[in-house]
Amino acid sequence: MTRIYHNPRCGTSRTVLQALQEHGENPEIIEYLKTPPSRDELLRLIADAGLSVRQAVRSKEALYQELKLDDPAVDDERLVAAMLEHPVLINRPFVVTGRGTRLCRPADVLQDIL
């Protein structure tokens, strides 16, 4: 089952969803701002995508600066806690297919798992 952790307000997320549908996929759409992942699910997405926790944080959000998450001394535990408390800090879109998990930013990364 293909899944996309989607934010409908994000252009990249919309582009990836459209590409999935054009490829004949009918993905489970998880609007993660409404239904955030659990801690275990978030950590699994990050690990399966081959990312560090810091790479999975959306650093362009104003909240990232406000919470001072840009400080290199902030550890993974604090970053994960911030993403769980404020899902807008989770970078997007994560896509899970039978061929793997990717953070599809840029959108063409999707091709790796189709």
TrEMBL record:
Matches recorded under PROSITE patterns: ARSC
Enzyme Commission number(s): 1.20.4.1
UniProt cross-references to Gene3D superfamilies, sorted A to Z: Glutaredoxin
Database matches in InterPro entries: Arsenate_reductase (IPR006659), Arsenate_reductase-like (IPR006660), Thioredoxin-like_sf (IPR036249)
PANTHER family attached to this UniProt entry: ARSENATE REDUCTASE (PTHR30041), ARSENATE REDUCTASE-RELATED (PTHR30041:SF5)
Family to which the UniProt record says this protein belongs: Belongs to the ArsC family.
Protein known as: Arsenate reductase
Organism name: Candidimonas nitroreducens
Gene: arsC
